[in-house]
Write the structure tokens for this entry.
Amino acid sequence: MKNITKLFAVLVSSIVLVGNAIAGEMSVTGSAKASYRIGGEDLNGGKAIGVANELTVSASGELDNGFTWNYAVDLDDANAVNDDTQLTIGTPYGTIGFFASEGGLSTEYSNLTGALGAGSDYANISGSDIDREGYDVSDYGNIQYHTPADLLPFGIAAKIGYAPNMANTGAGASYKAVGSTQLTTQDLGGALTGLQVSAAPIDGLSIAGDIHQTKNQTGTTTATEEGISANLGAKYTMGQFTVGYYEGGYQDAVSAGELIIYEKDGYSLQFDATDSLSFSISQEEISRGTRVDVANGASAGTKTIVTNEIDSVQVAYTTGGLTLGIARVDESNIDFGSTTDENTILSVAVAF
């Protein structure tokens, strides 16, 4: 980590000392989306109409030394003033970036495909109490370094990110933000390091994996087990078919008592019938194993395993800049309980 910090310092110093900004360009991109969701077995259970306010304002330019810069802010949450922001500096030696609620390095969903979006990530499944993705530096204010494009053979690229304070969630973080010091859990106050490695060894094949690990938890509930998460998978396109698969798992930082380990895998298959019409199916399984310490007088501890399964079928039709979609999502053992749910999502989206 000391070497990474030194590299960041050198890059930032070179930018400050050598570069003068040249007037850049600004653009606004985004999409207008609306959906009608039908879910649950009750007459009106789960029904809702939603309209997304996803808008990205970006600016870019070049320094007189040939370095480039890019800035972007996403306006997609009415409750956040400065949500999803990033500033990146491109150099011949790689890219350095500063992110607030951006810069995700988790590869879980990048290895899946979908006519409308990747499986449960698109569907925004009903469970809300469980961290299904594990750790990702994008959940916090973070700094990253990306290797230069085409530096390594077979399209190999690496990105490393560092979130110095997991109490600083990043959303709405302003310039010179101060991380919270009122710490109540084993995660808060710790640092998180993430590494992503990807490759494209042959045409149509992409491979990607990531690993994240917490360190130096300093909350009032000190961690006895560091948190860690990892994913590895691949996606391959041949003609009109695309197939994707991944495996992963994670363990939250814990202070004492039971240890919970999540193991997950998923696959997807997409068929592009025409340039306008696409079909996809996907299945994901997340198993939660809970291990409880050996009690006094007992000869062994206990362990229980519950599997949460999400199945998705999607159809998308695009004409011009308009996309019409329908998705069916079936979920069992929601939040690792015993309930099931079925959701149908009708959507319309216009990109601009």
Remarks:
- Helices lie at 2-18, 119-123.
- The longest strand covers residues 302-319.
- The chain has a mean pLDDT of 81.
- The radius of gyration is 22 Å.
